[in-house]
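Final report, results section. Input specification for complex C-07:
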Amino acid sequence: MLDIRRISTSRWWHKRKNWILFAIFLFLVFVRISKGSLYKDFYYFISKPFWPGQFQKEVILQSSEQESLIELNLLKKDNKRLREILNLQQSSNTNTISAAVISRKTGSWWRQITLNKGSKDGVEIGSCVIGPGGLLGRVSSTSFFTSSVILLTSPESKVGVWLDRIQINGLLIGSGDDYPNLIVYSKDTDIKVGDFVSSSPASTLLPPNIPIGIVKSIDKPSKAKKTAKILLLAKPQAIDWVQILKVKS
Amino acid sequence: MNKFFKKKLSIICFIFVPIIFLWHPNWLGFLGIQPYWPLFWLLPWSMINGSINGLIFGFFLGLILDSLTLESSFTQIPGLILCGIWFGRIRIHSDIFVGHFRYGLICFLGSLLCGTLYFAQILVKNFSDSNFLLFITSVQNILAEVFLTGFFAPLICSQLLRLFKFSREKSIIINLAKK
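Structure output:
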């Protein structure tokens, strides 16, 4: 009897060492499932002091900046030459006027902003207005001191846009809500949510390559066209200062 | 000067309608949409001065507001004229409490009429492009505007009606005194 009692009191789960082994096993299983993410993060912290130094980083950044600048200048020259050949709008950042938003109607049917610069400051009808994020709209009327900008969300706004990923032109139509509609006149176009939309390089109204927005949702294709809702990058309801790009003919 | 202000209070308020329309105070809005401000002035004015005056000033308001908005193809004039005529036919209720809620309901229906007429113009203009279905989402503009107009009308219209009545009585007294 005594023997039996002694055996029953010495089961494996009564030993602390076994539990420790089991915990280690569980930990290793976790490491395996998480594909070693814990190890990698740990390695990140312990290897931090041995990373390539700040000096090396600066040297690399400087040379890469120089490379980008040279490349940019070459592309600008090339772009200007090609635009002159095609007789399209010139893009220029030097001819800008900064203006403050003094009135804004960003809801309801009337989607417009009024700026504190007018014909006195050289603002012309048709000038393009950009804010932090990208294109806001075009100047539709000017007074001596103010100018009114029709926003891209207004039901009267229609601009040509460019989808860079699939290299296709489309039409951006405001519909009176916060998300204007993109219409592409081709049923088989491969538009995807998240595609970037910019002003069309072929447009005669707007300067090329100004960011506009990203595709938010795609509607079902109908007849010979595809429509999508666009989320604008520039938020007119929050912007206080904008840049007016002068029209260059 | 003081007499002039008291006499012409309704006209002075009329000047402020386009200003508040341009000002567009966002903190009073809902979903970025504002109440339809011109109705708050047009209702008491038409109730006191009748349908013909309502029609004329509805037209004037429409002209001014159209000049402030950039949409040249659409107009607010038909809605405001119809509201002006309708508001002129409404009698002032003796019970103040009922009156307050009546203003809310009247402005609610008035802004629904104006919003629907404006929306109809957009649809008709774009009907030929076969893109008109894209504009259906903007129905939320009408709904939000109607709700806000109906919500604020009892507060604003009753005060304006009181002021206009007071200024009208003043001007009558002044005219009688002159005679």
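The two ends of chain A are 109 Å apart (CA to CA). Chain A has a mean pLDDT of 81. This concludes the modelling results for the funded period.
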